[in-house]
Write a structure and sequence with these properties.
There is one protein chain. The protein is an alpha+beta fold and about 500 residues long. It has helices at about 25-30, 35-60, 110-130, 180-195, 200-225, 280-285, 290-305, 310-320, 330-345, 350-360, 430-440, 445, 480-490; strands at about 20, 85, 95-100, 140-145, 155, 160-165, 235, 250, 260, 265, 405-410, 420-425, 455-465, 470-475. Helix 1 (about 25-30) packs across helix 2, helix 3 (about 110-130) packs across helix 4 and helix 7 packs antiparallel against helix 10. The chain is globular.
């Protein structure tokens, strides 16, 4: 069994990233679907994600005595699961009311029981297949909260616990329904304690990929499915009955999971020639994960049998081995090949399967080297999903009085993109005055010096007169300024 990173940071994991299962382009599509209920729920999900980020930042900051704030359950004293499920009751305060603890009987709430069972199935995979004692390999208690928010369209790991929404009931159903979604989110916790893959660009896509891999393996093991028998679908149980699609993602055939008027068409690529080069969604972490996802599927189906025993063991060796947090696709491919060779030999079936898979998805060439001759392949640009274009604005006035201001919000937990160009004289008087004051002062430039944080919103402000072009991290914004920006985006 490969040694984990516990020796280097046994009590303080690498920085947690708050990760949700619903890709940002889906929430963006729902927020502009033309159906009021769906739009309202998607926007409320995004609003709650922003508030949750702020709460997370407070809870995980250092206290004066240096102790980290945490909602973790007590660590298990033996190698056995230690589960606690809470009910938020439609609110957003975490963890909520405790409704079921380890060893207690089932309740009359299906979501509670599904969450409890899903936590157990996930713990069982990591322990039985890889000898891992919970997410941190030290008996970390598994905490979950159900019924978060009102028809909240997501589920997420926040660095300490799992949180499940009930979905909008039309397009997205209750998030405890899907075992692979539970396994996916908890795998973000394992990544937090092992490889610590940065949630940005190719490393971020690998972060999402690792969660999809171990999420599908949780489902396969619980159902007793071989690689050939699995549907290789992530979130198949989440889509409503009238949605034109089968799941949130397909690891077997990225880009084919759905094609629905409200969701759009699945944009995931399955080959590096279709890599999506974008600044949104932390560099396309939910989209480009389709490429390594397909590579894993190819390895698993080539080897056959139980995917968690052969392909999964290779991937586990990589994420708990000598991997850097900024790992790219080509480096990850090389690490998986090295792990296969170390365990089975240079000419083994495992090594050949790994080499062939990465070549088939264009990450490496047929000899195993990085495609394009380097470890960082320059992707072929492809457009990320964007809202319908808005009419061209009128020219900016030539004088010194600001007339047009563009505000753009990107990132955030869900990666939604919103953009609006407005004339100040069309805004309410108070907002127009506030904008003129901001644009004429050094405040925006000072705020732009704040540190960019993964999963926080980023606000871009540009204006020709006076010349302003800044990007500001949401945590750096005073509440009044952020509210001004949001009102302007809604104008």
């Amino acid at each position: 069994m490969t040694t984990t990173h516990e020796t280097s940071h046994p009590t303080d994991p690498r920085p947690a990233v708050r990760c949700g299962i619903v890709p940002p382009y889906l929430l963006q599509a729902l927020a502009s679907s033309g159906e009021p209920h769906l739009e309202e729920r998607a926007r409320e999900t995004l609003r709650l994600d922003q508030l949750r980020y702020e709460e997370h930042a407070r809870e995980h900051s250092l206290r004066p005595d240096g102790a980290r704030v945490s909602r973790r359950a007590n660590r298990a004293t033996t190698e056995a699961p230690n589960r606690v499920v809470h009910d938020a009751g439609g609110g957003t305060t975490l963890p909520g009311e405790k409704v079921r603890a380890e060893g207690e009987p089932a309740t009359d709430d299906t979501a509670v029981n599904e969450a409890y069972d899903g936590l157990g199935a996930t713990w069982d995979l990591w322990n039985a297949a890889y000898g891992r004692n919970s997410l941190d390999d030290r008996g970390l208690g598994l905490v979950a909260t159900v019924h978060y928010g009102t028809n909240y369209d997501n589920a997420f790991w926040d660095g300490s616990q799992m949180v499940f929404g009930d979905g909008d009931g039309v397009v997205l159903l209750g998030f405890t329904r899907s075992l692979d979604v539970i396994g996916h989110e908890l795998a973000h916790g394992v990544t937090q304690y092992t490889s610590g893959l940065v949630y940005q660009d190719q490393a971020g896509a690998l972060n999402e990929h690792v969660s999809d891999v171990f999420g599908i393996l949780v489902k396969q093991r619980a159902l007793g499915q071989s690689a050939e028998e699995s549907d290789w679908l992530i979130g198949a149980e989440l889509l409503g009955p009238d949605v034109k699609g089968v799941a949130l993602r397909s690891m077997k055939e990225p880009g084919t999971a759905y094609d629905d008027p409200r969701l759009g068409k699945d944009p995931q690529p399955g080959h590096m020639r279709d890599f999506v080069d974008t600044d949104d969604d932390n560099g396309g972490v939910h989209i480009n994960s389709g490429i390594p996802n397909r590579a894993f599927h190819l390895v698993a189906t080539t080897l056959g049998g139980n995917a968690w025993e052969r392909a999964g063991a290779i991937w586990y060796a990589v994420i708990t081995g000598d991997i850097k947090a900024d790992c790219d696709f080509a480096t990850f491919a090389a690490l998986t090949e090295a792990a296969a060779v170390a365990a089975h030999g240079e000419d083994s079936e495992e090594a050949r399967a790994v080499r062939d898979a990465w070549a088939q998805v264009g990450v490496t060439n047929e000899t195993g080297g990085a495609a394009g001759g380097g470890s960082e392949r320059e992707p072929a640009p492809a457009p990320a999903p964007t809202p319908s274009p808005e009419p061209e604005p009128s020219p900016v006035p030539a004088g010194g009085e600001p007339g047009l201001v563009q505000v753009r919000r990107t990132g955030g937990f869900a990666g939604q993109v919103r953009e609006r160009t407005v004339r100040l004289d069309e805004l309410p008087d108070d907002d127009a005055t506030a904008w003129r004051t901001l644009l004429a002062s050094p405040t925006l430039m000072a705020l732009a010096q704040g540190r960019m944080i993964p999963d926080a919103f980023r606000y871009g402000v540009s204006c020709d007169v006076p010349p302003v072009d800044v990007t500001i991290p949401e945590p750096a914004l005073p509440e009044g300024v952020r509210e001004l920006f949001d009102r302007t985006l809604e104008a």
